[in-house]
Design goal:
elongated; four-stranded antiparallel β-sheet; alpha+beta; 3 helices
Length: about 210
């Protein structure tokens, strides 16, 4: 493995230190659901390793197939990676996106019963300044990159707020519709009870009249 590969692996370890992880079996697929606003850049980092690092394993053959589906279950991307990689995609609609991960191997049935651990970190929007900009000697260029980064963050926050407002409006509409349905159901129940009560009273009165008890 070259210096570039070691550097990327180190970056993955640092970014995934506080990220989530879950277990996977060979050829097993697991999905996570993430709320993502419209037109947002999503970056994911993952690292696949044996669940028990002390056991002997054929780790060079590990691989992950990443599939991303939008709220309408249309595939945004699907690609096969190695055991550690970075993937990106852009959301085209606000809502729940499905990120699915399936293990694979480069040889047939090598890890048919092996338990694996997938470390995963998902970042929505731009979260870092171009590292090359930090090395520049031109302060104006560095300030320009910093301002661009701040603008990207402001756009991300604005879209998040807009998406939350859309969700609140949707939940408010659902609550109002539910309350309206409950109210009408109560009116219908009351009407049925009153109708049945009057009918029973009339039948009872007719019975007493027929028996000449009244």
């Amino acid at each position: 493995m070259g210096l570039q590969g070691l550097g990327f692996l180190l970056q993955c370890y640092l970014m995934l230190a506080a990220a989530m992880y879950f277990d996977l079996g060979e050829q097993e697929e697991k999905c996570i659901i993430k709320e993502i606003p419209e037109d947002m850049l999503v970056t994911g980092y993952f690292l696949l390793e044996p669940w028990d690092l002390k056991m002997n394993t054929n780790s060079p053959h590990f691989g992950i197939t990443v599939t991303v589906r939008d709220p309408n279950h249309e595939v945004l991307m699907t690609k096969r990676y190695g055991k550690h990689a970075k993937f990106t995609f852009t959301s085209h609609a606000s809502g729940q996106h499905f990120l699915c991960f399936q293990t694979n191997s480069t040889r047939f049935a090598v890890f048919s019963r092996e338990k694996l651990k997938l470390h995963l970190d998902i970042q929505v929007g731009e979260h870092s300044i171009d590292p090359n900009a930090k090395r520049t000697k031109d302060n104006l260029e560095y300030m320009e990159n910093s301002l661009t980064h701040l603008i990207d963050q402001m756009v991300f926050i604005a879209r998040q707020q807009e998406y939350q407002r859309e969700k609140e409006e949707m939940f408010r509409q659902i609550s109002e519709d539910t309350n309206s349905n409950v109210l009408w159901w109560a009116v219908v129940q009351t009407s049925i009870l009153l109708t049945v009560g009057f009918w029973q009273m009339k039948r009872l009165k007719d019975f007493f009249i027929a028996k000449k008890l009244v």
